[in-house]
Specification:
This protein is mostly helical.
Length: about 425
């Protein structure tokens, strides 16, 4: 009997006994939750879907399906067009690597229709939710791991509220402030490496964070094991630590790539070109954890262990950038409810209004400054005109201008002065 079978049997016994406490405290191992048979049963429990919530979500799913059948999909939600475009690009890698997928015999086109419907139903079920590119990769994992569409819906619904709500706002700012935590963590662990990482905006981590690594890591099993670690620890902060752990784990490879591209003499001075740093950091995960990696499972396990150590040694609340995280962000409030989602949406709306006021105030200052410069120019011009007209009025023949004509200009000059 292999270790894998031992772990599987133990987990099945825990699930059969409905021992939720024991499941949540199950020690993490390099196999995660072993296979999709166990994940399909364990993940909803780990996300907090109890029998009461399960009943509610069943009814919500049924009602949304009725609405779906009655409405045009493209009027069902405002983001339908973009969802369709992203779904059409799905199933390029994860589908091909899923050996445990229940509907493997069905056509890809049928699976795309199910994925589109799944995303639309969840968006409809969460008021004020906004689709973002990368969410379809997350939804695809939900579709791959569950045997029926209702179960996929319930799982994705709770996953969205608890682990993805910051990314579902109408703007990207709640997500962007999260990314700044990554170099802050690196700074506490490896200051020399931080000097390289901090040279660029951490936007390179965006696709991994918003997709829970499904966009960058192509191996289905590797992503599944990463999700196991997140759910077993019930920790929405863990993806940030996981990304920091990835950077640290592949530090030597990153520096080597930077050195080769910069054609360095071999001496590492960490003073690399900004564009090159961004390029390397944007690609290092796919390069090192590609679908063809031989020891990817073993490496993923070590990276997860490193993320646990980072979380323990560098509490997120101790980081300077943590104060900029929204109060209702999943990094600060782990509750996964529509009320918290609405509170976050309200919080972000206040931020938007504040930024709009700042923009208007800045535009007003600029306009006043421009007006002042214009008035000064007019004043100077009027002053010169006054001198010329004064001389002209005194000695009209000197300039070849009749006295009456000069008087008219004097009257115009006095009118302008009164206006100024």
């Amino acid at each position: 009997m292999t270790i894998g079978i031992d772990v599987r049997n133990e987990l099945l016994m825990i699930l059969d006994a409905n021992d939720i406490v024991r499941l949540k405290n199950y020690p993490y191992n390099d196999q995660g939750l072993v296979n999709d048979e166990i994940r399909e049963r364990a993940w909803p429990i780990l996300l907090g879907i109890n029998r009461f919530l399960d009943s509610y979500l069943n009814e919500l799913y049924k009602q949304n399906v009725i609405d779906w059948m009655q409405l045009d999909p493209y009027t069902f939600h405002k983001d339908a067009d973009q969802v369709q475009k992203d779904v059409d690009r799905s199933f390029n890698t994860l589908y091909n690597t899923s050996s445990c997928y229940h509907d493997k015999g069905k056509s890809v086109e049928d699976l795309k229709k199910r994925l589109f419907k799944l995303i639309m139903l969840v968006l409809k079920a969460i008021p004020q939710s906004n689709y973002y590119q990368g969410y379809h990769d997350v939804a695809l994992m939900a579709l791959l791991h569950f045997s029926d569409d209702c179960s996929s819906f319930k799982f994705l619904y709770m996953l969205t509220l608890k682990y993805l709500r910051d990314h579902m706002m109408s703007g990207i700012h709640p997500t962007i402030v999260q990314l700044n935590l990554i170099p802050d963590i690196i700074k506490q662990i490896d200051f020399q490496f931080y000097l390289t990482v901090q040279r660029v905006n951490p936007i390179y981590a965006l696709s991994s964070i918003i997709s829970l690594f499904t966009h960058e890591i192509e191996n289905y099993q590797d992503v599944s094991i990463i999700w196991d670690s997140i759910f077993l620890n019930d920790d929405p902060q863990l993806p940030i630590y996981l990304y920091a752990a990835l950077l640290i784990y592949y530090k030597e490879d990153i520096i080597m790539d930077l050195t080769e591209i910069c054609d360095s003499s071999g001496e590492i001075n960490f003073d690399f070109d900004v564009d090159i740093v961004h390029s390397v950091l944007s690609k290092f995960i796919k390069k090192n954890l590609s679908i063809n990696s031989i020891d990817s499972k073993h490496e993923v396990y070590k990276i997860i262990q490193l993320s646990f150590n980072l979380r323990k040694s560098v509490p997120m609340s101790s980081l300077k950038s943590f104060k900029h995280i929204y109060k209702n962000s999943f990094l600060k409030c782990t509750s996964g409810s529509l009320t918290v989602f609405q509170s976050l949406a309200d919080e972000y709306h206040r931020y938007e209004m504040k930024q709009l006021r700042k923009k208007k105030h800045g535009a007003l200052i600029k306009r006043n400054k421009n007006n002042m410069i214009s008035l000064l120019k007019i004043s100077a011009g009027v002053g010169i005109l006054g001198i010329i007209l004064h001389v002209t009025f005194k000695q009209p023949t000197r300039f070849g201008i009749e006295s009456n004509f000069a008087k008219a200009y004097i009257n115009l000059y006095q009118s302008i002065r009164e206006y100024i």
